[in-house]
Design goal:
The complex is a heterodimer of chains A (317) and B (99). Chain A is built from 13 helices and 7 strands. In chain A, the strands form 2 sheets. Chain A has a 5-stranded mixed beta sheet with strand order 1-2-5-4-3, with helices on one face. A two-stranded antiparallel sheet of chain A has the order 6-7.
Chain lengths: 317, 99
């Protein structure tokens, strides 16, 4: 049995990193409720229920937007969010979601913006260098606001050469009801999850937790060789390797052999402590300084990243 | 409106409701009234049964098959419950199509 202190820390970190829903889902599906203190399970359950309700609201908003896009003949691929929860995590309440992420073609942007504005969304000033534009709307149920991100790419174009056609080409209609709503196959969904985590510098354990959960459930069906081939084309190979390398510290990954990218610089405790204590130590800064050298495929990407940092053009890698 | 055995009416889920199951319980979100509603076990079963429009008689048959109650009591309970769900605007009533 884990100590009270340990369980208290789990609750604190779960709340801080929006992981209560996933942890509760894991506890529940493993049938561990009876083995844990009631207060611990009840606290997780309450937070998971709150996240589930927000997901339900986001599901409603997402469907409103997608129906409007369908009528306007806008091709769209929802990524992450509620679709990830329902399709790959098992149920809507299994993973908390903060916003609605939609990939559209750049040529559809102005029409998509009209659709969002017709639904009451307003633009949020975005940082130059982002690969998406953000809109928000007041949440009639209270906090937080409802955010929609319209992506024309999935990672900063300065530090990768992602060809979005590689995704559009393999995307399939979401169901018979839709002509323009598309979904990505398993491999590409996983690849995007990796890119998403690394673009946020893995600054929350949530990113690795998502990837571990995904691998534990779908790992046997993933074709890692084709994912690596895609990553090489997109010049995101080393960051994809790094993600798998870090994940392999915790779980065994089918059809995966240890790779050569060093991960010595990576330290989850440093990241977590920095968030919990709201202050950074030397090790955190060292981590931030060295991470690009382990992530990027070439010097040009590193220079682009440093230029971005110096000119304060966003936080994404 | 008097709730009863008339087969000319059907009951259906309201359009303004989003629903999900959490820990086996149905949680509803009224997106027009901006409120969340938790259904009890019986309400949840009825909600699940209303995956398509149903007549009172169909709902009563479902209740009797799933609850060990006398027919008269089941009818009385069902009427009360439908009334509550209608008042909460969780379900709606419509005249059955004759086509």
């Amino acid at each position: 049995m884990a100590s009270q202190d340990h369980l208290g820390r789990i609750l604190r970190e779960a709340r801080m990193f929006s992981m209560s829903a996933l942890i509760y889902y894991l506890v529940k599906t493993a049938g561990m409720q009876a083995d844990l203190p009631n207060l611990f399970v009840d606290t997780l359950r309450r937070e998971a229920a709150h996240a589930a309700l927000h997901n339900l609201l986001l599901q409603h908003e997402t469907m409103q937007i997608l129906q409007k896009f369908e009528v306007a003949a806008i091709e769209v691929m929802p990524i992450k969010g509620i679709f990830l929860a329902v399709e790959y995590f098992g149920e809507l309440s299994a993973r908390s979601t903060t916003d609605i992420d939609l990939v559209i073609r750049p040529t559809s942007m102005s029409l998509a913006i009209q659709c969002l504005e017709a639904l009451g969304y307003k633009p949020v000033p975005s940082i130059q260098g982002h690969f998406h534009t953000t809109f928000c709307k007041r949440n009639q149920f209270g906090d937080p606001m409802i955010y929609v991100e319209l992506h024309w790419n999935v990672i900063d174009e300065a530090t990768a050469q992602v060809d979005m056609e590689d995704f559009w080409r393999v995307a399939v209609p979401f169901s018979e009801k839709y002509l323009f709503l598309k979904k990505l196959p398993l491999n590409e969904t996983f690849y995007l999850l990796c890119l998403h985590g690394i673009s946020h510098k893995l600054d929350s354990p949530r990113y690795l937790a998502d990837i571990m959960f995904f691998l534990s459930r779908w790992g046997a069906k993933l074709d890692l060789e084709s994912i690596f081939a895609l990553a090489k084309r997109h010049k995101t190979y080393r960051r994809t390797l790094l993600i798998l390398n870090l994940t392999a510290r915790y779980i065994s990954i089918p059809a995966y052999r240890a790779v050569t990218v060093s991960n010595k610089v990576w330290d989850e405790e440093t990241i977590i402590e920095r968030k919990l204590e709201q202050k950074a130590n030397m090790r955190y800064y060292l981590h931030q300084l060295l991470l690009p050298f382990y992530c990027f495929d070439n010097g040009k990407q590193i220079l682009a990243y440093w230029y971005k940092c110096i000119s304060r053009r966003g936080e994404h890698m | 409106m008097q709730i009863g055995n008339e087969d000319c009416f059907t009951y259906l889920r309201s359009n303004n409701i989003e629903a999900m199951q959490f820990d086996g319980e149905w949680v509803l979100l009224d997106v027009e009234e901006h409120k969340a509603i938790n259904l009890n076990e019986c309400g949840g079963m009825l909600w699940a049964f209303l995956d398509k429009p149903r007549t009172f008689r169909e709902m009563l048959g479902f209740m009797e098959a799933n609850y060990d109650v006398a027919s008269i009591q089941a009818e009385k309970d069902l009427k009360t419950y439908i009334q509550e769900l209608l008042e909460a605007k969780v379900i709606a009533i419509q005249r059955k199509s004759t086509s």
